[in-house]
Every structure is written in C-alpha cells, then in structure tokens.
Amino acid sequence: MKAQSEPAWMSEDLIAFRDSVRRFVENELAPREEEFIEARRVDPSVWLRAGAAGLLCASIPEEYGGGGGDFGHEAIITSELARAGVNSFGNNVHSGIVAHYIARYGSEEQKLKWLPRMARGELIAAIAMSEPGAGSDLRAIKTRAIHDQDLYVLNGSKTFITNGINAGLVVVVAKTGEGRDSRSVSLIVTETEGLKGFERGRNLEKIGQKGQDTAELFFADARIPRANLLGVEEGQGMSQLMQQLPQERLIIGVISAVAAQRAVDLTVEYARGRLVFGKRLMDMQNTRFKLAECATKAALALNFVNDCIGRQRVGALDGTAAAMAKWWCSQIYGEVVDECLQLFGGYGYMAEYPIARMFTNARVTRIYGGSNEVMKELIARDLDS
Predict the structure, then answer these.
(1) Is the dihedral of CA 88, 44, 127, 202 positive or negative?
(2) What is the pLDDT of residues 139-152, one digit of tens each?
(3) What is the DSSP letter of 4?
(4) Are the CB atoms for 22 and 30 separated by under 8 Å?
(5) Hey, is 216 helix, strand or coil?
(6) Which residue, of 206, 233, 260, is where some domain finishes?
(7) Which of 41, 67, 145, 335 lies at a CB distance of 3.0 to 4.6 Å from 58, suitable for a disulfide?
C-alpha cells in the first residue's frame, strides 16, 4: 500500500525516535516473539535492554531517569510494537500507565525511589485493579488495607494482572474506607521482593497475547509502609484512576488502529501471491471490495487516534474522546481482522500465520481498559449531561 503521510503531531525529532524504536523492536523483540509465547512471558533481561535503548518511561521527566518526552513518544513505541506484531512486551502498562501514576501522584521521594529503576528496566511494574468479583466496577473491590501504626495490612486477591509474574512493583487498588463511595478507594504501591504475605498465582493461560505474563496476585496480611500511599491523603484512588484511565484507553485505541492496518497489509500481500481458480486472489472482486472496506476502516481509525494523540500531547484529550477511541478502534480492529482472516481461507485458521494470532489477540481489546459497553455508557452520560 502507499505510504501514509505523517500525522500532524509528528516532528523530525519524533521521526528519528521512531526509527530507533523500530530498529530495536525489529532486531530485539520481533525475532523472539515465539520464544516469549513459549515461555508465556518476556525474560527480564529483555527489559534491561529495552531500558538501555530508551524504550522505558520515555515520557517521564529526565530528572527521574525517564526520556523527558511526552505521550507522542509513548504512542510511537506502542505503534511500533503493534506494527511488528509484538504483543508480549508489557511496556504499555509499565511505562504508559504505572509510571504516570507515580510521576503524577507520587511524592518526590517515591518518584526518585521507583522511576529511575523502572526506566532502566530493573523494576518491572504492574497495576492491580481487577478482582475475581470486580472488573469494570472498581467500587466493588474487596481488597482492603487497614492501619497498623506506620503500616498498611493488605488483604485480598487480584486477577488478570498484566506483568503479574515479572512485576517487582505493583500499584494496588484497595479499600481504605467503608462503603462503595469514591472516597473509600486508595492506590498503594507494593514492592513485591521479599514481601511476606504476597503470593503470585498461576500465569493465566489466555486465548491470545500468550507471551504476555498475566497473573493472579494474592495478599494475606501483607505489610506495606503507609508511606507507599499514592497521593497526599487516603481516598483519592478513584479520582486518580479517572484522571489516568483516558491515557490507558487511548493506548488501546492506538494498538487497535495500528494492528488493523497491519492486518490489511498482511492480507494484501497474501492476496497478491495466492492463486485461486487460475488467477490471483487479489484480482477477484469480492477480495478487492472487502479489502477496500477494511482499508477504509483502518485509515479512519488511524486518523482518529492521531487526532487524539495530538490532543493528549498538550493535555487536551477529554475522557469522552478517549472512550470513543477505545471502543470504536477496538471494534474496528476485530471487524477488520475477521474479514482479513476469511480471505486467507484455511491458512487463516493456522496458528503459525500472523493473521490467526491477530484474531485471538484482538478480542481482549474490547474488554480490558473498561469494556466497550462501559465506554458507550460513559459517552452517553456526557451526551445527557
């Protein structure tokens, strides 16, 4: 396909950064994706190399060990991973989400303690929101932190935690108050190494994104310093989550849009070389029309997320637009990859073909970061306000 023009937010410096990221992804990550899938996690040594290459905490200020960039840098890293079909490396959670909770709400001491190690890849981070009985409804969580002098005693369980096996630092969403109101929830940073009362469950087996470690985490009277609370006081957790979730949702939108375009590119390449009834699959009208539809959907998704990226870079992206980007682009991703897989015929059902993996990888994008049904409800509330 013809190369698309650069988005308005892309500068010469960002293009140079993209080139360096692309080299690292293509040379260091993409060739090892099979290895990661087999092991069901990325080896910690890869995180150290990614840190040395400047892929970790790229949008965190330099005084805390980061790259000093903005969301444009994170979007480039996210895009290059999706473009290369690398689904195992959990940097979006580590750098795009957890690092920003610490940078935004952490004390100076907390930022200096954790962010440089995260930027170097020495400390892999996760955020623990979901529980067996609480997914999108975070007010229903049961994990609780109670006071014991200068400590929190943490009890509860978390599930579906990305980077859960590798994580040495976990931002835990926990109840520090009574009831379901927003003031009952706090974010507590937990250092897992040597922590008594902390246990990792199994590395969950998923239908897609098999190389990304996703785990259950258990806390049984785990004792955490009260100094690890994020924010100046308890009860700020829901507010902090609501402020940061738009970036998480935009990241999912970026992944979805770029991956949809990758599905189109893979299918065009296949259709050009595949002979059916004596002629190229690409010469058949049904193929051409289906690919025209998919290419249009992917282009619209990319243009939408690029507009959102531009707004996020200057702090102007609202939660409604982020919800739109998340649900619509993930929906388009699923539709496009399904149509593309169909054009591969039986080969599309074979696990060794990238399109087959994309089909299973795509499904979760409509679930995590808040289900698409929740996204639509958020948008509808804004319309009715």
Answers:
(1) positive
(2) 789 999 999 999 99
(3) P
(4) no
(5) strand
(6) 233
(7) 67
